[in-house]
Amino acid sequence: MSPRLSPGSLCLALIVLLFSACSASPTVDRSALTSAQEPAPKQKSSLVDSDLLPVADSYIAGNLDAAVTIVVFSDFQCPFCARGGQTLDQVRKKYGDQVRVVFKHFPLPFHQQAPAASRAALAAGEQGKFWQMHDLLYANMQRFNQEDMGGLTSSMAEDLGLDVARFQADMANPAYDAIIARDLTLGQDLGIRGTPQFFINGRHIKGAQPLAMFEAVIADELEGVRTALAEGLDPALVYAKRLEANFEAAIEDDRKGAPVPVIQKAPSRVVHMVPVHSKDAVKGAKTDYLVTIVEYSSFQCPFCERGAATLRELEAKYPKNVRFVFKHFPLPFHQHSEPASRAAIAAGEQGKFWPMYDLLYARQRELSQEGIFEEMAEQLGLKLGKFKEDMAAAATVDRVKQDHAAGSTVGVRGTPGYFVNGVSLIGAKPIAEFVQEIDQQIEIATRIKKEKKLKGEALYAAVVEHNKALANALEHGGEPTPEARPSDEAPGD
User: Is the peptide bond before 416 cis (omega within 30 degrees of 0)?
Assistant: First the structure.
């Protein structure tokens, strides 16, 4: 069995939950908890609930009596929560009836439309469509600040085939505010400050972590449940007993000063401002671009060749929104990569950088041949004398060195390395990973462009700063720092 995941800073809150009453939270109106009659539970499970982290009448996806319960505290206006939701979809697909997902509302105070989105999900739930509305809300999150939430959610209700008049009436039900306040209080008593947060049979995962982290904890919990049942545990007590055991183990680990966590946190989201210079090779959108992809590459690297093919597909997919910038990063053990970079720069002096770029990759296995670069220059119709002069020039050598040094300062160690509006993507990633990041960056840049009336390099710089704030928020488990929050919407969760 893999070691337990200790929640560290949550342990004091867990001690309070185990041994005393919950402490008051100044940010939640607790009068809402008793001011309205809550809707009756609509789902029945044979599992005994837990007072430590009650499922109560929260909506459940999956087998109601599953061996593993994942409780998620989430915010419908949080981009990290949307990503976490996609991971939970993968979990449910992989583990089927072995896992159930429980949703708890945790709208953050700087996400002004999140409470309305939570009410919309609850109202859809009255007509059996909570999870369908859940998915629609995350898919349309970028519209929350652009449209009236009443009209937007009513349109979604119509798309889902709901009785819209009933939906609108339910949206105004004060009982929903009580449910949201109850979930907020529970989360705050657990020490939650940002979103998303997950508890897998009580074992805490903070932030939108990769599927592998969930798999490790779930596999451990399934083994723990099998052992407990073999030792005679009543199946109805699986959730309550596993939760209690894991909470107590976390407290004990914290008391002993055990390392936190043993299951490693995913690598941080890394963001760097990579300046684009006048002599850099640029293609794609040249003026009104929303996304800048900077490529650090070595022409003798087979993974870079694969990455170049992916970038060509992306250029065709995003002709108006994305600009592509090349930076030289010849690796020292690729002895022909540095002269290949100089050949590309020399071709660029005659307006043929990108044709030479394509040719260098197409004939990558021939780079060791004597006279290959001159042969390529002739193939491209370049003036050979000027090409050879430019290729040998000290300024050309310096440009390659400067790119390499600049790449090292932003963490490039191997190739290919990419920065998508400053967000680091290392290696020859599949196109789907680029598309996911680019689509998110287009949404961010479109909003910042509209709000701040920026374009070009100024917009690029603003979006990179925004992404740095998001990365800082994710590094701290979703809790944004004050400087990361614009006046109307926080950039992180």
Answer: yes
